[in-house]
What we know:
By secondary structure, this protein is α/β, with parallel strands linked by helices. The protein has helices spanning about 40-45, 45-55, 80-105, 120-130, 155-160, 165, 175-180, 200-210, 230-240, and strands spanning about 5-10, 15-20, 25-30, 60-65, 110-115, 135-140, 185-190, 215-220.
Amino acid sequence: MERHLTSWFSPALQKDMPVAMYGHYGFSLLLVPTAAADYLEYERFQLIDALAPLIEGGKVKVFSVNSINNESWLNNNMAGEHKAIRHNQFNEYIFNEVIPFIKNNTSWDTPIIVSGASFGALHSMNLFLKRPDLINGVIAMSGVYNLMEYTKGFYDDQVYFNSPCHYVPNLTDHYILEQIRSSHHIHILTGTGDYEAPDAAREFAGILYNKGINYELSVWGEEWKHDWPTWRAMLPMFIDTRF
């Protein structure tokens, strides 16, 4: 499997941000880490190994980025409004730096699907819903789509605009809605085992339904916990059978 590590100084984040790339061809899969993890997390926990047959077969090329959650929502020493500012800078980093980087390493016609587990699922869903003109779909695993779960009670406009459960019910921009509705790849996956939140997945699926947005909700059994064996099973299966 081709593997390449690179980095650049991000104007949006004002720091060096590394990216891991795996593979040579196929649609682009952008992986967003869980919680406080880094760009090599999916490799360390063998999810890249689980995807290896699909990567080596040219079905998918993977791009994995760093999180900055320790500099935003998980930083207990930072004021809530500053956490929100930092979070928005991360969004701009993805939209204005990572997406062009992916396009330059594939093609401008190659679809981009964003994916993540746990907190990465919320980020992935949010990134897709904000810019469906740049990102073609999402595979969200074991997510909670209400940012208030991570804000320790803080709420302002920027929390609202980064919390899909809050802003999607009120989304009226016809252009954005139609772009979201045109996606054939809005996949919401969850287990029902320990520490999973299937009701959160169902709630958000209901919000999408009420907006006329097509989606797939897949609820797995109680043996599927909020942990890496679940995600190592989910992601390869959905890529293999849905793309």
